[in-house]
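#structure-requests
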Amino acid sequence: MDKNVAFIGAGSMAEAIISGIIYKGLLRSDQITAANKNNRERLKRLEENYRIRIMQNKEAEVNAADMIVLSTKPYDLKEAIYSVKPYIRPEQIIISVIAGISTDEITALMGKDNPVIRAMPNTSASVGFSATALSAGVYASEHHLHVAEELFTGIGATAIVEEKDMHAVTGISGSGPAYFYYMVEAMEDEAVESGLSKETARLLITQTIIGAGEMLKQSEEPAADLRRRIMSPAGTTEAGINTLEKNNFQQIIRECVRSAKNRSMELGESKSN
């Protein structure tokens, strides 16, 4: 990909994307530059780990970028945009990976007609397996969306969605990896308590998740049917599922997703106000 990318904000999501880009060979290290608010130690670590460039001359390096990725915390967005907007060229694509913030709000803060793409990847980007949803702002064309899609397809799977659905995406795939990690914590603890070594438990659980993911990806059957195929009457799987049902597992998961979605909406509302 023959593009220069400038990251404004260098937190965990920015690092995951950078790691995936480098890991997949999508861009060279010298095509990537990064800046953040005041954490010079983190920038130094990114420079050492990924050989990217740390922004020294904001005017020159922002101006030279083809794409600018906004990856700050929501409450730092205004300051971040104001620090770079004097150097933004009209044809540069602005990509935001900030939860809860609309493309319209970014356009208003920019005060320019640049194409803005909103993206919601997840931290699996660091190993090239992100699930990223993309939506286009008012000034973004199909071409701009395609360029952004090319970037994120290089580090996983992408889906184009209406921007109104981005809050739901945040609750599902944006925050989703953490839900699985949390479940794995519990499975590992129980496996160790049952006598397995932590290493064996991790290997078996990890491969089980990978296998289930591949089954969902390759099969046309709904998840409910795949589950039922494993459940023999009065068998071990049914015993486990019965416990989940007794403890309202599906309702808990739905409330979990809903809480993350609602928080995304709150972040957008608080930022607007």
